[in-house]
Amino acid sequence: MPPAGLDRVGSAHLEWDALKRKMTYQAPDRRVGRFGPTMTMARSAIEVMRSAQTAKILIVDDVATNIEVLLGILEPDYDVSFATSGRHALDLLAKGARPDLILLDVMMPEMDGYAVCAALKADSRTRAIPIIFVTGKTDAESETQALDAGGVDFIHKPVNSQVVRSRVRLHLELQRRTRELERSLIEVAAANDRLRVLTQAIQHSPASIVITGLDGTIQYVNPAFVEETGYSLVEAVGRNPRLLKSGLNDPATYRSLWEHLQRGEPWVGELINRRKTGEIYSEEAHIAPVKDVHGEVTHYVAVKLNITERKRSQERLTYLATHDALTKLPNRALFFEHLDRALALARRNRTRLALLFIDLDHFKPVNDTLGHAVGDRLLQQAARRMASSLRDADTVGRIGGDEFVALLTGLDTPENARLVAEKLRDAVRRPYDLAGQTVRISASVGVAIFPDHGDSSLVLARHADDAMYLAKQQGRDGVVLFDPTLIPTTGTG
């Protein structure tokens, strides 16, 4: 039997015994009190009252640890239940469970998340429940598939607690406001009275709200829209929402939007818009058709929240994850992504490219003698010199302490690569003025050419590294083009 008190979150239908064997609870008093067999009637009543006032969330996942992680994130603020398979979730909903939001795993046996989502969207009773996919897939095709299936958003695994809370809170808020607005618009349509559209709820909503006719002409915007965009009510009414068009949105975004609306379904996504001043900003938009009592679409309504700061934070995190903190150059992971893309393009176009491995000679004595702060400044200046000695189309990155790499594309001959490498070496060995002292270093550079010396990033990297070590063995401050007859193995000096 499941622990007492769990029935409130739908546990009568859960495979508790099997799930319990998978989970190890190191439970705080809150969970013990809630699930424990000695829960008092008074506490149970309090929990039921709390449930009635709290948004309900259903987690659907076949992995117990995934459920436990999400429960730990969401239970303090929401009434959370869970199902251990797609079929299990559909059974719960068929029996009357009506969560405000569903967190749905993609990869499940028997019935995956896309199939579950399709079934829910095909049922008028569950069609409006927003579904956020929780997936380990990060490719654009999987994300598009999730949105096309009817999901409103997706969260990547492993989940980040702040991202989960932010997405859940955002979509619950969008859902709440959209429901309020739809109720108001149904009343307006029944009375055919445009004045009732301008309710106090819309006027004072912090969300930007736009109402258009079937032809897309704006009929109303709320004060939040005016404040957000800089367009007054008079300037906006009678025009098309394209007045905010930035030219920065993917055409596929617009296709998805109109396909959803033409099917009479709401669309949720991100839009990059332009204010009257020309300033660019990002919005999370929930755009839905509004139907009359006969089920005919009469208007479209957009509820939009500014997410510019959130996007900037995401972009900053991405930058920090892909760039070297000291030199601001691409790190190893990002550089080799660039290399793989460049190799694919070079194969298609039958062109050459070069990979350079660069080791700064005599850096360690400078670092040891003058200190790490001076050593860091030396690395920064050397990085800037290397970057400025290359074309805009080329890339330089930092992969280790005093080790750098460079990617040269569109080469006519291997000799072109040698000339660029020598230019880079010459830039590095110019004197540096650091801490009131003149410091000199040099660079040993190894060069490997595609397709002459290898067809993959792994092979090119090994050969460029071998050539670099030969340059060091030959006295440093030199450029060596890979030659299998001269470089049998990688050295260690």
Automatic annotation (TrEMBL):
Protein name in the entry: Diguanylate cyclase
CDD domains xref list: GGDEF, PAS
List of residues that carry 4-aspartylphosphate: 105
Keyword Oxidoreductase in record: no
SUPFAM superfamilies reported for this sequence: CheY-like (SSF52172), Nucleotide cyclase (SSF55073), PYP-like sensor domain (PAS domain) (SSF55785)
Entry cofactors: Mg(2+)
Domain GGDEF, chain residue ranges per copy: 351-484
Residues of the Response regulatory domain: 56-172
UniProt organism field: Thiocapsa imhoffii
Keyword ATP-binding: no
Alphabetically ordered keywords of this record: Phosphoprotein
Domain PAS, chain residue ranges per copy: 194-240
GO molecular function: catalytic activity
Domain PAC: 265-319
Domain of life according to the entry: Bacteria
BP GO annotations: phosphorelay signal transduction system
